[in-house]
Amino acid sequence: MRWVLLIVFIACVVYTHRRGRVRHRFFRQLSDHSTFTAPLNCFSYALSSVPTTPFLDTRHFPELATLQREWRTFRDEALALREAQRIKASDTYNDIGFNSFFRNGWKRFYLKWYDAPHPSAQALCPRSVEILSRIPSIKAAMFASLPPGGKLGLHRDPYAGSLRYHLGLDTPNDAACRIVVDGESYAWRDGEAVMFDETYLHWAENRTERDRIILFCDIDRPMKYRWAQRINDAFGQLLMRAAASPNETGDRTGGLNRAFRYLYAIRRAGKRLKAWNRTVYYIVKWALFGGIAVAIFCI
């Protein structure tokens, strides 16, 4: 049975690596989080009732048309938050999902995250929260800002149980402000929406003189069968709810983010080791990964 599970796991990892036109290098893929979530994600791909292409037509999600009709409402509340400097980077290690983006000037203000709305969002942007509350398929939402000159490097998200929706609110309306998913480019425009699969490798840039603000949502991936939908939703609640990050005191912090400061201390130690001797760093890194794999397989 262990060998069967191992073969299934390897097959899922290989599929994840080869999926799409843009790929990580082999050894980079081995340590990527998508390797460890590959079996769960392959379940989502296999039983998805919508296309598994990099970009999806928003007509597959008619309930989201409300967001586009109300885009000016979202824009007005987002601009008020920006003016009050509430759209911001975390000032501590409590956002495991987006921590690496902050060094590039990316900022956010959470509206909800796999749970009830953030209390700070209910207080500061009640109209946006009310609109989102009408649409159960929206699992998470935030206002996200990318400044002039900002760039988010090539990456993929770990969980395929959701799909990513972007709605342009206050954008440069310029091809130089764009996201590239599996090699396909999309430029944000005010009032226009795009849906994509965030588990394809993607990156973003803003090579203009203007800030870019969008409504950023995680949408529940529709599944072919009700039992598959229930499994997908259960894993989403279990995994993603633990990554909840606060805007302000009084907002909930998930378990992963409560532990993140300690996890990041290990990351900093690894960076120091890599700066001292890259060869030693990679020997230690792969010895740890190998040891964990052997321990799991032998239990």
3D structure, described in words:
By secondary structure, the chain is of the alpha+beta class. The protein has a domain at 55-253: Sandwich (Jelly Rolls), CATH 2.60.120.330. It contains eleven helices and ten strands. The strands form two sheets. Strands 1-8-5-10-3-2 form a six-stranded antiparallel sheet. A four-stranded antiparallel sheet has the order 4-9-6-7, with no helix packed on it. Helix 1 (2-18) packs across helix 4 and helix 10 packs across helix 11. The longest helix is centred in the C-terminal third of the chain and has 22 residues, at 255-276. The chain is globular, with a radius of gyration of 20 Å. The two termini are 12 Å apart.
